[in-house]
Fold:
Amino acid sequence: MRYIVSYVSTISKSISDSDIEELMKYVKLQNNDKKITGILIYSEGNFFQVLEGQEEDIKTLFDKIKKDSRHYNIIKMLDKPVKGISFSEYHSSFTIVSGHNSHDELQNFLENEKTHNPEHFKSISYLIQKFIKPV
Ligand SMILES: Cc1cc2nc3c(=O)[nH]c(=O)nc-3n(C[C@H](O)[C@H](O)[C@H](O)COP(=O)(O)O)c2cc1C
Structure:
């Protein structure tokens, strides 16, 4: 069964810009490798992440992420099975958004969600609009 988790969090004080860049690269590689889709956005000291994939993979990964000292104040917003199209029927790369130059990537992500995850599209796009300031 496909599963979705989304949360916001606050970055730890000790994390530098290059640490963030390194984390973003790592997350994209790992998630593409494990066929986990979604988005990780960094904006002004906060993370917003959507993780979609097989239930067991997502739960195991989120348990690790929760314990990661690079962020705190983790507030979970979505945590449920996805009823839509089966995960194996589409392939999408994990999206990373950092700074204000990623408008196209964000649009692509939202288009993909609208098609493949219509049940949660409204709440995800609403949360993203609230999370990042208009470009
Ligand atoms: C904000 C944030 C988001 C993260 N997202 C992911 C992710 O999507 N996928 C991933 O593999 N690791 C992610 N990580 C890293 C994990 O917390 C953890 O370091 C990584 O899974 C390696 O764990 P391991 O050494 O136990 O294998 C994230 C970390 C942070 C701080």
